[in-house]
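Supplementary notes for students who missed Thursday's class. We covered one full example, reproduced here. Read the sequence, then the structure, then the short commentary at the end.
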Amino acid sequence: ETRLLAILRGHRMKMIMKRMFDETEFLSDYGIRSLSKYHKDHPYQFNYEGGTVRVDYTPAEATGDMFGGNSNWRGPIWFPMNYLILDSLEKFSNYYGPDYEVEYPTNSGKMMNIQEAAEGVSKRLLALFVPDSNQKIPMYGEYDKFQKDAAFHKNHLFFEYFDGDTGKGLGANHQTGWTGLISEIIRHLYVVKE
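Structure (token representation):
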């Protein structure tokens, strides 16, 4: 019975990771989205007190004024959530061991252990701060001053959250409390090797 439960738990874990590592759902080029991109074309709707409430994928700033209107948790990349996911993946990696493999990204045909998949997510988060193939830093979007000016180019801002599709930084740009977690992610990627 214990072996059967372990197999079932392992199967459930693979199903969760299949959705989380799917680039058409949660996995962005810049981390894990706070809501599946699936809801862009398939909004979640439910009836409440005679009306219909709709939750759809919004990768950047909120499109309505619900909850203040300036931000949302329905699609953007948030560092606190991503950090908790990475922490959980590390624990699952320790539990399942290095031989337990998942497909990362989903539908890529690339199999790897959970620790390697977590490193993939970490590198996507780091990509927010690093010039891409066009020498543009994704989090600065169309802001040329931040892209080119020597005073800004290497002195990064710590945006509150990031567009789930483009990586553009949004909200407060001094969110060192949680976006500063990138330093711990870098440390874990490149310094801590157990």
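Commentary. The CA atoms of residues 119 and 189 lie 7 Å apart. The radius of gyration is 18 Å. If anything here is unclear, bring it to office hours.
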